[in-house]
User: Fold this.
Amino acid sequence: MKYREWHEMKKPIVVVTHKLPAVIETRMKELFDANLNATGMQMSRDQIISICDGADVLVPSVTDKIDAALIERFPGSVKLIANFGVGVNHIDCNAAAARGIIVTNTPGVLTEDTADLTIALLISVPRRLVEGARLARTGKWTGWRPTFMLGYRVNGKRLGIIGMGRIGQAVARRAQGFGIQVHYHNRNRVHQEIEGELEATWWESLDEMLEHIDLLSIHCPLTQETQQLLNSERLDCLPKHSVIINTARGGIIDEAALAERLASGRLAGAGLDVYANEPQIHPALLELDNVVAIPHLGSATHEGRIAMGEKVVMNIRAFADGHTIPDRILIGVDI
Ligand code: DGY
Assistant:
């Protein structure tokens, strides 16, 4: 029997590893035979395997490591991994494909929120916003002084963007509004029209771009190629006054090397939303005043999370109805 014919007789069994926005959970209960996470607690690997028993669809998120060893243990019933989130670096998509399991994500709906948060960090670090807010609460502020707590202007500076996809472009658009010049490195040069609109300069060589910028923002996915892309050597290509913003994935930067350079003054500052071993944050980074560290908040808006949930629901419905699945991850294709 074909999957579709089989589905016509019953609702798909959908298991979810995280607590989702209430409207999404309600919708899932209406449409699917949904097994939700009532406690909101992080599930262990064994718990994920256990809820998958007899399920058609697994809905994981970034904190669930769906690696080859776990996929190997999935029951044959699982045919779709509908990720709640755009990044799929925590899922071994090749291992899933090898078992005939489709993987989907939620692109497009968290672009603006992530770009907003990137700009917030891009301003916060050079203008010492968090340091200032901390001081204001201590009662130790002695009043305005001409040389008190000076930061650096962002207007007129050069921003290098690594990864000029949806989020990179949304950041570039915002940066223009602040009078920041946009430079970018992307495997493929973006369409001329977009480049013109963003007044963006493309650098084929990442190392060369790094030498010529003041601010750096990362917007590429974490893959084998981008793992520790910003290693010690690349960090040393940046001018000493540079500020680095990362709202993509922590694994793209060598965090120990970054902390070392921020502590020694070899780099000026960093605004970080993501970390290599979340929820752990490299302790050396947390000791530094020139680091603004926030807990993976890029897409954390009510609107964004509901839109992500709606995408998950749409992907599951398309799969179950035998239609083209909108956000299917195609193996070997850029996301
Ligand atoms: C994303 O969607 O990739 C966010 O970082 C959460 O996973």
User: Anything to note?
Assistant: The pocket of (2R)-2,3-dihydroxypropanoic acid is lined by residues 61-62, 85-87, 110, 298-299 (CB under 6 Å). The chain has 14 helices and twelve strands.
